[in-house]
Amino acid sequence: MWFDEAKTVKCIELVQPNYIHYATEWTVQARVDVEKNIWREVRVIKDLAQTIDRIQISWVQSDGYKTHTSASELGNTWILFAPAIDSQITRITLECSMTECREGEVEDNGECRSLDQSITKAIAWRILTHRSKTSTRWALDISELDFYSTATCDDNSKVVPNGSAVDSGNAGEFFLPENAFDAPGVWGGECILVLIYF
């Protein structure tokens, strides 16, 4: 959504209206530089269950929320092993590889990088998902997409969608992106030439 002016957004809520065309992963991005067309990821949610319920995506901590970091989150791993019985020397070879990034990070060319969860104000916001994270690989439906200025998606903090709805492609005049913003119908996204829906 391209807003008419920069809007504070801390939470997004979406509804996938059916069990046929849905996504299991969503990325939220903010456009931080209009002239250079720079978008920054602020949140990625993965492994979503197939649901028609509202999905709330927030990247800002609510007031009173405390964080805690354990040693395992910092990458420390302890391996205990018994010494060799017939020898005074025990040799061990270890190999490590990244299988997934920590919470609050996203994989980018084999490296983990932090999401910029400090971004709360931008002229444009979008959600996107990769074709491989959709149920059919060619279509995706969203019946409602709302932006909120609070981290808890409170109804009284809903941001009025006063701007232009844009998408990566759709199924035609009855499935336009505007349908996801307080309009009847659904946005029917199609993914034919691109690999990402937005």
Report on the structure:
This protein has one domain. The termini are close together. Residues 64-73 have low confidence and may be disordered. The chain is built from no helices and 14 strands. Strand 3 (26-33) and strand 4 form a beta hairpin. The strands form four sheets. Strands 1, 3, 4, 8, 12 and 14 form a six-stranded antiparallel beta sheet that branches. A four-stranded antiparallel beta sheet has the order 5-2-10-11, with no helix packed on it. By secondary structure, it is mainly beta. It is globular. Helices cover 0% and strands 35% of the residues.
Which features would summarize this protein structure in a list?
single chain; 198 residues; mainly beta; 6-stranded antiparallel beta sheet; 4-stranded antiparallel beta sheet; 14 strands; globular
Briefly summarize what is shown.
This protein is mostly beta strands.
Helix count? 0
Q: Give the mean pLDDT.
A: 80
Give the structural class. Answer: mainly beta
Order of helices and strands: EEEEEEEEEEEEEE
Percent of residues in β-strands: 25-35%
As for the number of domains, it is: 1
User: Rounded to an integer, what's the Rg over CA atoms?
Assistant: 21 Å
Largest sheet: 6 strands, antiparallel
| Total beta strand runs | 14
**What gap, in angstroms, lies between the N and C termini?**
10 Å
Ranges where pLDDT stays below 50 over 5 or more residues in a row are 64-73
SSE arrangement:
Elements: E1 2-8, E2 11-15, E3 26-33, E4 38-45, E5 55-58, E6 105-108, E7 111-114, E8 121-130, E9 139-142, E10 144-148, E11 158-159, E12 163-164, E13 187-190, E14 196-197
